[in-house]
Amino acid sequence: MRLVNIHEAKTQLSKLLEQVQAGEDVVIAKAGAPIVRLIPYAPPKRRIAPPGAMEGEGRIADDFDAPIDELFNCLKDHAA
């Protein structure tokens, strides 16, 4: 692990980033006390739920596919 002070981090940022990218641990300190650790960026892993994972979580009304007369009448009125 490499410990660097804030001033060195400011002046050597590109070099420090290369070291982090190469796998080296770099910690930035203020007055000798560690305050931050630089780590390489890793995109978040996309979690894909297995088929059926949401089974029983939703509810469909019994009249879900029943015609909505008000909607049809409204559409007829505006089409004319």
From TrEMBL:
InterPro entries: Antitoxin_Phd/YefM, phD-YefM_TA_antitoxins, YefM-like_sf. It comes from the Bacteria. Pfam families: PhdYeFM_antitox. Belongs to the phD/YefM antitoxin family. PANTHER family: ANTITOXIN VAPB49-RELATED-RELATED. Antitoxin component of a type II toxin-antitoxin (TA) system. This is Antitoxin.
